[in-house]
Design a protein that fits this description.
The protein is mostly beta strands. It folds into three domains: 48 residues, no CATH class; 59 residues, no CATH class; 83 residues, Sandwich (Immunoglobulin-like), CATH 2.60.40. A four-stranded antiparallel beta sheet has the order 8-7-10-11, with no helix packed on it. The protein is elongated, with a radius of gyration of 23 Å.
Length: 207
Amino acid sequence: LSRDSAKDYCTTFWRHDIYSGNSKSNPVLGEFFVDLHAQLHGGCSWNGFEHNVFYLNLPGEGFVNVAFLLGVSHEFDSRMVVGADFDADGRPDLLVTQLSAKNRGSSELLHLIKNNWETSGSWIGVRLRGRPGISPLGAMVKIKTGDKTLIHPVTSGDSLWAQHPAIVHFGLGNLKTVETLEINWGNGETTRIENPKVNQYHLAQPK
């Protein structure tokens, strides 16, 4: 949390607080923590003024932080981020929150960051729609293209204070066709689409 001062409380927490607390009442420690909390509300930060990072995957070489180059190295406090294709153009965008906690309360702003990356690569996506008793959560989406099989599970809880939509996106690169698109639902049902068109989203729902 970035407050009025760059003075950081995090070091105190990890070097002191986690070792001193217990379930027994301790008036001396109580007064100590009251003073520390007053520092936080008085302008002391907790890992404040850190810039966001955005990693680019370089196959065979690892990851490199390109946040500054792409204009997303924001210094504001971000607690939530969702990667999803909001405009359905096949390029995943970002939804990032800005948390302000300089006063006792807090306020949030949403930043929708459009992906304008120019690419000639192909892609395919699927929108999962459940029915009563069957949720998209837990489904396994699989595509087969050539000698490759790509698998993507539909999960929840992988982002702090946020949830991604029940949409799965596969980047295909130079591949132009997909032989099968298969969804294995949590109840054991399977939805299978033969030779689905690429560069578009397909709707899938259990019977």
